[in-house]
Write a structure and sequence with these properties.
alpha/beta; 49% helix; 3-stranded mixed beta sheet; single chain; Lyase 2-enoyl-coa Hydratase, Chain  A, domain 2; globular; 7-stranded mixed beta sheet; 2-enoyl-CoA Hydratase, Chain A, domain 1
């Protein structure tokens, strides 16, 4: 049985399957899933549901029609007076975008569940930024990606500068932002921007299999693994050691830990309940 979420737009679909995988699909293939305000809002609505829903144990962000997302709708920018048109005063526009950032990339990065970007085609601009916000990225080997912002005279948004810098370092991140060439997946894999590049024919099966594996994993342990790693990025060793001590001891009191220990002895796969 599948549960669907009303995202407020036909261009964002969100469903939860029986395995506990929540999938958000950017569905505007005629524009390579270029993102509109309504689409950003729809992604935020779906993520707000998935973050706290007990039937969701892994979240996937993907795109329809052979693309991931081309980022902002540049054609609409050109026709409508630019990326900031229609957003009210400067201060109102900044505040609205800050809220958007937090509700999309911020939630993907911080939510206490594994998040996966399934990149089946071009990922550019804000689309790439949101892919980078996910914990893992699986791509089709015929996909391409680019930061794209310099080509349209924008500085970049949705956390891409921070996420990319964590993955490749500041010098390479500046190169990729200043000179936004199209990157193939062999290069992205070598740089550590994606985790896996799969043949196009196997792509759908691959990301679905990974998502199902994550959904079947230990949700409490995942929650604290993710917090440990995320906070280690801006923290120091002493802070990480203290966090690990607290979180490791806590997970050691869970039913999931005891189930996994018994399963190890019994030579079977554990059944994690999130307790």
């Amino acid at each position: 049985m599948t549960r669907s979420i009303d995202t407020g737009t036909v261009h964002i679909t969100a469903e939860v399957d029986d395995s506990g995988v929540g999938v958000i699909t950017m569905d505007r293939p005629e524009r390579r899933n270029a993102l509109t305000g309504a689409m950003f809002s729809g992604i935020g609505i779906a993520l707000a549901d998935f973050e706290t829903a007990t039937d969701v144990r892994c979240v996937v962000l993907t795109g329809a029609g052979g693309a991931f997302s081309a980022g902002g709708d540049v054609k609409a920018f050109a026709e409508g007076g630019g990326a900031s048109a229609g957003l009210g005063t400067f201060d109102e526009g900044v505040h609205a975008q800050r809220l958007n950032h937090k509700a999309t990339s911020g939630v993907l990065f911080n939510m206490p569940k594994p998040t996966l970007a399934a990149i089946g085609g071009a990922a550019a601009g804000a689309g790439l930024s949101m892919a980078l916000a996910c914990d893992l990225r699986i791509a089709s080997d015929n996909a391409v990606m680019t930061t794209a912002f310099a080509r349209v005279g924008l500085a970049g948004d949705y956390g891409g500068t921070w996420f990319l810098t964590q993955l490749v370092g500041p010098s390479k991140a500046k190169e990729l932002y200043f000179m936004p060439e199209r990157m193939d997946m062999a290069t992205a894999l070598q740089l550590g921007i994606i985790n896996t590049a799969m043949p196009a024919d196997d792509f759908d099966e691959s990301w679905r299999g990974t998502a199902a594996r994550l959904a079947a994993g230990p949700p409490i342990a995942y929650r604290y693994m993710k917090e440990n790693i995320n906070r280690s990025v801006t923290g120091d060793l002493a802070t990480t050691l203290e966090l690990e001590a607290t979180h490791h001891r806590h997970t050691g009191t869970t039913e999931d830990h005891m189930e996994a220990s018994r399963a190890f002895v019994d030579k079977r796969e554990p059944e994690f309940k999130g307790r």
